[in-house]
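User: My instructor asked us to take a sequence, write out its structure as tokens, and then describe one feature of it. I'm not sure where to start. Here is the sequence I was given:
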Amino acid sequence: MNDWTSGYVAELDYSHDFFHEMTPSRLAFAALSRGHRHGLDDNRLTYCELGCGQGFTANLLAAANPHVDVHAMDFNPAHIAGAHRLAREAAVPNVTFYERSFEDFEEEATLPNSFDVIALHGVYSWVSRENQERIIDFIARRLKPGGLVYISYNTQPGWAPSMPLRRLLTDRASQGNGSLEQRIDEALDFAERLKLADAGFFASNPGQLTRLSEMKSMSRNYLAHEFFNKDWTPFHFADVADDLAQAKLEFMGAANPLDHIDDICLSRPQQALLAEESNSVRREGLRDILLNEQFRADVFVRGWLPQTQRGGVGGWFQTPFALARHYGTGPLKVSWRKGDIALEASQYEPVLQALSDGHHTVRALLEQGVFSDMTWGDITRMLTILTGAGYIVPCLPQAGYADRIVRCRDFNMAVCKNAEDSERLGFLASPVTGGGVAVDRMEQLFLLAQSEGHQTPNDWATFVWRILEPQGQRLEQEGRVLDLPEENLAVLRARAHAFSARRLGILAGLGVSLLQADPSQPEMAHPTAASSQSGAVA
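Assistant: Let's start with the prediction itself. The structure tokens for your sequence are:
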């Protein structure tokens, strides 16, 4: 490897992913749920992403949040070149990318003096101790008082059994010849041979057989960055908390709201053990032991400002929510750490039905009588669970929507045009939430067809087939590649009708559209139930 990589994988590019937890409105909700008075409702914010990879998250967040000045850095020039290109294609003016290392990023003269949010996803466990110290120093110098840090990292004890397997794979890959992808394949094949030879490690650690099987099916680009770096550190929570304490930060809470509710994560005996620990850092470490945690996504704050009871209720009252997933009828299944979470249909159904007509604040839902005779604790608990499970999503205020919808439409058009020959970009920007919405390639092409005047699902299917056929791409159904045009068109039509019935209304409610629309109000969602059929591109 060249010296500029500092031991980090540069031979294979990182994936183009979007990480919901980094969305400002979701960080604001996490703070509200934990009783912290955040400043993320200001009309001008500064946001910095350290180790932005392909820059897709930074680009999307900037498009969906024109009031946020986004700055993002990565050491890989190919990543930054691609991020710049998407920013130009999508006309995103409020994002700046830097090809910098952690060593010299602080010297960048054009950086703001301070940031409201500093985020790093999938970075801290994968860089050297020297670079970890540089990250902490940057946070100490640049994070505003009251500012938030989002940080995700591998943790102990969950990764402890996998460390010998990871060492075996990286050592084997370092000895091989050929491209990194070829060396990864060879290392996995060698581990498979050890399994077939009844290696004692796998006999004593049967969970690693599952991990090996999962790794074999993963993208080699993802594996390269996840497992094959020179540096790879699964942390104890206390060590990360101690590092961030050097920058005057304290733990605020998990980024996923479901982890704010102990009784859906832990058994009663486990909760009792946890209650005996009064120290917040030791409490999180004990929690990781109870859950055998292997990955954390946390939010830290520089200066905790606890909400008053009245202020906390007021924050909930002002928070708008939108429907994020189709809901028809029947029991709602929410699965989490302890398995399925039981929710009362009489409680959640009125909420989901009310949000099917568009986004509403909690105050508006209360005034409509949606919560019936539920206690305030039950209301906030249910909204937290529905948010963590992805059925509803917190939204931005109405102010600024006109600007957001124009910016998001430009960004989404660029992404959907990219879908004509690629499936790399799997998210579109929502002007309602300020975050991303998962939209696969076929759905993006259906939206593109609609934007070009094709009005019916059958027309959308024909439009998509005209793109796929000359590229030699065919759909799959039940494991069989469809050769005949009429077979491919039949599957595309079924998917287009399902998209129209189940997804289009949800996307409209989130403001995700390529059509010219009245920017004064978000579009209302009217999803209806329909069966869906899928067809994967071969």
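For the description part of your assignment, you could build on this observation: The two ends are 34 Å apart (CA to CA). Try explaining in your own words what that tells you about the chain.
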